[in-house]
Design a protein that fits this description.
The protein is an alpha+beta fold and 180 residues long. Helix content is 31%, strand content 16%.
Length: 180
Amino acid sequence: MSMMNQTVLSLVVVLDKVGDRLVIWHVNVGRGMGLSRLTGAWVVGLDQEDVISTLTAGCFAIWCDGEVVAGTAEMGVVDLDATVDAVLDEVAVVDERFTEHQETLSSKLIRPQWPAVAHPRVATPPLREIDETVRPALCLAHGIADLADRWAEFEALRVARPFLIEQDDKAARPLPLVVR
């Protein structure tokens, strides 16, 4: 198990094999840049191995409910359940640190309202008409983008409070992807 390093643009690829095609969706799980976290989408033939390799190279893979295509997860596959657990665990640790700090004060601080974290697989699908070929990958990509946004909101709340910052983590940390 490993954690992902922080970069400005950290892409994961959401992949779904649909018949003889592969749906590929890029999602930025790194720092928000004021742009959409959904950064690109393609539907390519499984016989387009060079294109698939180019579009998935250097990215962690997240598969929809489908068959894994060889050569698409060279960096590793994200364990979404473990990633959500890592996010929830870190929120709980920081909330406990807040409580411990608050107990040392004579006046009480207002507890931050930590963002609600939902599992990316249960994300609300977009409301407009979507081609059924890309629906599973798009819905999962939206869910992952939402998870990255909630993590960024959590980190903004954490780093704004000096007593919640450890000596070596003064900057916002990357989404703790658990990769297998």
